[in-house]
Amino acid sequence: AQSVTQLGSHVSVSEGALVLLRCNYSSSVPPYLFWYVQYPNQGLQLLLKYTSAATLVKGINGFEAEFKKSETSFHLTKPSAHMSDAAEYFCAVSLFSSNTGKLIFGQGTTLQVKP
Amino acid sequence: DSGVTQTPKHLITATGQRVTLRCSPRSGDLSVYWYQQSLDQGLQFLIQYYNGEERAKGNILERFSAQQFPDLHSELNLSSLELGDSALYFCASSVEAGAGETQYFGPGTRLLVL
Q1: Contact criterion met (CB < 8 Å) for B100 and A49
Q2: Tens-level pLDDT at each residue, chain B (114 residues)
C-alpha cells in the first residue's frame, strides 16, 4: 500500500533562510508525487508535481523538489523564505498505474517564518 | 481562485441530522473528488466520480454518500451525524480521472456537529 510520511509537523525558519520540508513515500510501483500548500482558511493549492519527466521539479513561488528514487524521497526546498510562505504544506502520492487520481496525503508540515 | 466552488462555506448542525454539501467543478473538468480534513485523521480521500460514475472509494463511512449529476456538479450527503464528523470537507476536480491529473481544490465546507 502506498503511504506518505512528512518528517516534522512543524518547521520554523528565519526570513531569508533555506526552507527544507521533508517527504518520504512508500509505493510498490512508480508514483506521481505532489506538493500542495494550504494557507489559513483556504483550500489547497498545487505547488508542483512529479510525473517522471524530470527528477528536479520547479514549482510556483520559487519552490522546487527533487525526486530521489533510491531514498524514496521528494523533499521540498526554497532558497530564501518569505513571510508569505508561512502556511501548511502537504506531500501527496498517487499510483502511476492506477485508473484513479485519488491522492494519499502526508500529515502536513506547518512552516513558520520568523522576521 | 481555483474555479471550484463549494457551498455552504460553514455548516453548524446537531448530532443525528443530515446535511448536503455541494460542489461545482471547474469548467471542463469531468472528475470530482471529496476529501475530509480533520485534526486527528488529517486529509483523507473519501470518493471520486468521473463523468457521473463512481470511480474510486476511500475511507467513506456508510452514513455518507455522494453523487455526480449530469451537469457534473457533485453532492456529498452526510447522515446520522456524529460529533466526530466535524471536519473540513474539500471538493477537488480534474480534467480526467487517472493518476497524475492535477486536482484543483475548492475552499472547503467547514462542518461543525454539536
Answers
A1: yes
A2: 889 999 999 999 999 999 999 999 999 999 999 999 998 899 999 999 999 999 999 989 999 999 999 999 999 999 999 999 999 999 999 998 888 889 999 999 999 999
Cell 523564505 -> residue: A81
CA distance B104 to chain A (A): 7
- Residues 56-95, chain A, touching B (beta carbon < 8 A): 90, 92, 94-95
- Cross-chain Cβ contact B103/A46 below 8 Å: yes
Question: Does the distance separating the beta carbons of B2 and A99 come in below 8 Å?
Answer: no
How far the first Cα of chain B sits from its last, in Å, is: 31
